[in-house]
Known about the structure:
Blueprint: H1 3-13, E1 18-24, E2 27-32, H2 33-49, E3 57-61, H3 66-77, E4 81-85, H4 91-101, E5 105-108, H5 111-120, E6 127-129, E7 152-157, E8 167-171, H6 172-190, E9 197-201, H7 208-219, E10 222-227, H8 233-240, E11 244-247, H9 249-266, H10 268-281, H11 291-312, E12 318-321, H12 328-337, E13 341-347, E14 352-356, E15 369-370, E16 375-378, E17 383-387, E18 394-395, H13 399-405, E19 406-407, E20 410-419, E21 425-430, E22 435-436, E23 442-443, H14 445-455, E24 459-465, E25 472-478, H15 482-493, E26 502-508, H16 527-533, H17 535-546
Parallel strand pairs: 1-10, 3-4, 3-5, 5-6, 9-10, 9-11, 11-12, 12-13, 25-26
Antiparallel strand pairs: 1-2, 7-8, 8-18, 13-14, 14-15, 16-17, 17-20, 19-20, 20-21, 22-23, 24-25
Helix pairs in contact: 1-2, 2-3, 4-5, 6-7, 9-10, 10-11
Amino acid sequence: MSFLDRIIARLIKSQQTPVLGEVRADGIVTITGGELLAQIGAARQFLRRLSLHPGDRCGLLAPNSIRRVAMDMAMQSEGLVIVPLYYRQAAGELAAMIRDSGAAHICCGDEELRNSLREASPDLPPSFLLDEGFRRAANSEEPVQALPDSMPVTIVYTSGTSGEPKGVVLTAGNVAHVLDCTDSRLNLLMGQRDEPERIFHYLPFSFAASWILLLSALSRNSLLLLSTDLNRLPDEIRAAQPEYFLNVPTLLERMRRRIEEQIAERGGIIRKLFDRAAKISVLGKTGDSGVAERASLLLCQAFVFPKIRMAVGPRLKALICGSAPLAVETQRFFQMLGIPVLQSYGLTETTGPCTMDDPRTVEPGHVGTAISGVEMKLGANDEILVRGPNVFPGYWKRPESTAQVLRNGWFHTGDQGEVNDRGNWQIIGRLKNLIILNSGHNIAPEPIEENLRRQLPVAEHVIILGNDRSYLAALITGGLTEAKASKAIDALNRDLPHYRQIRAFRILQVPFTIESGLLTPNGKLRRDAIGERFQLDIEELYRKRAL
């Protein structure tokens, strides 16, 4: 039975049970397994009227919603290769991906999205609106297309931190293996139970890990609740009352900052107790702790932390985090509150996860052990190499790019890492981001950027520069003063060797955004684009220092 057959079987079994919902301002709207099957059936009939055939590519450009999920499942059931696209990405970039994929049709979430594509590129294939696919009722239990392991099911375009995005072909075998591994780890977290799991989700399904979570939720006994307004995220999380949900580090950093600010506003004895407890649990200064710190931790565990957990999510068993490095202090912070943060590491090319934390043996600062059936090792320059049934067969129509990363049976991730004697992995940074000073020193910028952001919580983004230069410099965005930035950099530099110290900085008034092309769709820095956009600022920054 394929992963798609298992999902359909689960929906049939849940005919009268809610399986999917949307968290809206006026409440939560859910549909049962039977209702979702009916929507999938209607969309399948519509796709057939477009004369689409198994193996045809079809673009899917829409925000997360019940109908977007139904259309996704309908495309899979018809044997189409889904090309998921991020609706907030620049229209020109979207048009380039659609042309590259050779999509036969494009499904657009609304008229505005369709018009923006037409303006960017009039020569694109025909498009239809998402709602058009659900105007007629249909048989809800038609057989799905057979999915041999080698059959492509999606082409997911990489985020393009440098260079053009490439289409990652993922097969039915890739997806099936990762879903089995995800299911196994979630069973460890949730245990044996009869009632459905409650899952909240806000990340776009155009990202591989996000899509894997969707398929996992649909194949498990769960209720998946979708965000409909990122501006209301805290309210949506409270309404959904999830037991776990997938996160990027940015949200967890914001959640931590909000909790710390609320504690600071209360002041008094609560703040003193909290700060002392954090000294032990978050900063890890157990050796410096005295009776007051240990007593504060016990009091907080009894009276303060339970109230915070209730405010964050009364049912929450864990926060799952991936896509970028998470500050170890933030992971310890939630651990202190009694909310485990389970990390995962992977890439689009590995169908999402290569590693996942085991809920029983979480080690802060690490991203877990390799999932079942997957081998990982270190290559030259401590590059992480991966092989296993989760590794993609290649990039769409790019044999040269495929040959560069798939060598001798191993996928070369481009990430630097470390692994301890327990097989637990730690991610250092991207090899292509490595800064080489003209002194010959090699420096991974990500740990320095992460530490400076921690020193400057009001900073939105930090990027470290210095390739072919004599020292490091920083560009910082966000509402902060030069005095605060200077003080934080001085504090950071005290613990760094001379060649890793930041010698100059500039605060930019222009934010880094996805729309401006300075961030990837999943929020990572587009370093080449930032360097080009702010070239004059960078040159002036180094020139002034040289004088």
